[in-house]
Amino acid sequence: MKEMSNAVAGSAALQSGRIPATTLHMWTQIVGKIRLTLSPWTNHSWHVTLYVTSRGLTTSPIPHGTSTFEIRFDFIDHELQHRQERWRSDESIELRAQSVADFYREVMNDARRASICR
Question: Which residues are 37's β-sheet partners?
Fold first, then answer.
């Protein structure tokens, strides 16, 4: 049997159930809470929606100070990407089989490094 590339292995992790749908759901809730906290309020919490893209899901731009940032679940490259417009910088976290607590810790550490959260 041939070895799988990292991209195929990551895809297999999602498809094989090693990353259960319930875990992915909780990961999206973590990202949604960041958006909920930092976005201006809109009726019925419409400002918290994650939008479908050709590569996965995105928050769309979130205002932060004089700039914006965006968080994307990229299911093709198997990463959670954080993009800050002002500094044109990108950070990413690998989407791999891990606990929700570990994912939360990684996301919050990334947000602190980017000065998004305390």
Answer: none
Q: For residue 61, give the nearest of 116, 22, 2 by alpha carbon.
A: 116
Q: d(Cα 75, Cα 54) in Å, to the nearest integer? A: 9
Partners of 100 in the β-ladder: none
User: In the chain, which ranges are E strands?
Assistant: 51-52, 56-58, 62-64, 67-74, 79-84, 89-94
DSSP state of 4: P
Global pTM reads: 0.78
The residue-averaged pLDDT of 100-118 equals 89
Cα–Cα distance for residue pair 77/27, rounded to 1 Å: 17
pLDDT confidence tier of residue 47, bands split at 50, 70 and 90: confident
Closest CA to 94 of 49, 27, 35: 27
Distance CA 78, CA 112 (A): 22
Query: What would the two tokens of residue 87 be?
Result: 């500094």
CA distance 114 to 70: 12
